[in-house]
DNA sequence: TTTCACTCTGGGGTTTCCCCCAGTTGATCC
DNA sequence: GGATCAACTGGGGGAAACCCCAGAGTGAAA
């Protein structure tokens, strides 16, 4: 029963390997990869029963790696083992992972026992989601607070610092459409507008970015990816495929 | 020769402790603290030769802990051992640390050898700064790119999503003064204005926030602190004290 | 099929943000 | 004593962002 570990930090890899060797007796050979690309290649070759993926890796993120691996080998158990509980990753993962596959999401702040528990769960065919993540999942499925693809696109663009007109140009929309997206974004984030409240406390545009960072709807590395895409003229990231 | 380690992650503490036991032969007892407050208390009691501090800790950040420890025991060697190379921390640290004290700044992505090297340097009375940090230090000392206290205050406020008028109210300034601060902030961040460039590509306000995140001038946990301060009516954070 | 949510569209407003200009103060440095 | 720089002040103007309204098309769920 082969296991594959993918993490760019050597320290984390050896920690996890140690943990598995000591606590998962029925384990077979444990292989390691140090980036997402390598992880995919090794996975298709070794056909492991379980793959542990860090999210933040060079070349290919753990989530995209998971997508490719599951496309080839749908029966593989996948554990995302990350420092981050950002909503943006949960959104992506839920889109990428087929509903019937076996997977886990564990934060690196978890105790050793929790990690072992998660691994055991996956190996016996159950899912295991970190307690801290469940809150986030709730939010992504609540109609009133979760963002639509259109709202999310607009959010990313203002977070990058684009103007309405420049967003419109990039996404092939009218300025009015952009503003309409923003308007519903602001209301979902519950940002008080000009008419309401006593005084004009907030610049909604910046406030939306701030709150979205806080809630993990967006984060630095994701924005960097988007900036690449948008400046290469490709659009519709969340919609397509 | 006592050594004190402060980190809220048990895993990191034991990793570092192991490393020191194995590689710093002349070491004496090694104590551990799991937050900043405890670190300060233990330091004044134990008077260690060396203190290793994580930045992100509950109750009291590693930097503030370092400040208090150095105030009591200026001869203590301090190593900041953090995941972050954010400029905001470098700014803070340089203000807090007396010029003649012995300290180090090591990123957790450093190799074991580098960490040992840093510890040895501190113990023999030299400073040790992570290579990745030196770039940042350069920038904080370059007149043309480093922010003044006033510009930084304005930056924090727009990052929190406040309007000009609300910033003015909180900082006891006129709106014009706020706009003047923002104007010089934008120019230091090299954001093209409305007149320049082909088309109005950027919303400067949001763009400034984005670039500042990228450069580590600001980050989430620092902004949370500032939001607290500003809503309690206290101002002038960087200036005072 | 009818609902419903989502999205884009349009007209016609107000306010905030950013622009240009110029002038005063205070601190620091040679 | 000038020179320099950071910081706040002021007027006046333009453009972007946000406000309200209402309508119409899409696709999915009831």
Report on this structure.
Two copies of one chain form a homodimer. Chain A has two domains: 3-141, Response regulator (Rossmann fold); 149-231, Arc Repressor Mutant, subunit A (Orthogonal Bundle), CATH 1.10.10. In chain A, 53% of the residues lie in helices and 10% in strands. Chain A has eleven helices and six strands. Chain A has a six-stranded parallel beta sheet, sandwiched between helices. In chain A, strand 4, helix 4 (87-96) and strand 5 (103-107) form a beta-alpha-beta unit. Chain A is elongated. The two termini of chain A are 33 Å apart. In chain A, 38% of the residues are buried. The A-B interface holds A 9, 11, 15, 109, 158-163, 165-166, 191, 199-211, 213-214, 220, 223-224 and B 9, 11, 15, 109, 158-163, 165-166, 191, 199-211, 213-214, 220, 223-224.
Topology:
2 copies of one chain form a homodimer.
Chain A (H helix, E strand, L loop, with lengths): L2 E4 L3 H14 L6 E4 L2 H11 L3 E4 L8 H11 L4 E6 L4 H10 L6 E5 L4 H12 L4 E2 L1 H11 L7 H12 L3 H8 L3 H14 L15 H12 L4 H12 L10
Parallel strand pairs in A: 1-2, 1-3, 3-4, 4-5, 5-6
Helix pairs in contact in A: 2-3, 3-4, 7-9, 7-10, 8-9
The structure holds a DNA duplex (30 and 30 nucleotides).
What fraction strand of chain A? 5-15%
Side by side, the strands of the main sheet of chain A go: 2-1-3-4-5-6
CATH fold annotation of the largest domain in chain A: Rossmann fold
Number of strands of chain A: 6
* Level-2 CATH architecture of the largest domain in chain A: 3-Layer(aba) Sandwich
C-alpha-based Rg of chain A, rounded: 20 Å
**How do the helices and strands follow one another from N- to C-terminus of chain A?**
EHEHEHEHEHEHHHHHH
Shape of chain A: elongated
Number of helices of chain A: 11
The CATH superfamily of the largest domain in chain A turns out to be: Response regulator
Count of all domains of chain A: 2
- Helix percent band of chain A: 40-55%
Question: Which two chains share the most extensive interface?
Answer: A-B, 31 and 31 residues
Class of secondary structure makeup of chain A: alpha/beta
**Multimeric organization:** homodimer
N- to C-terminal separation of chain A? 33 Å
Would you state the CATH class of the largest domain in chain A?
Alpha Beta
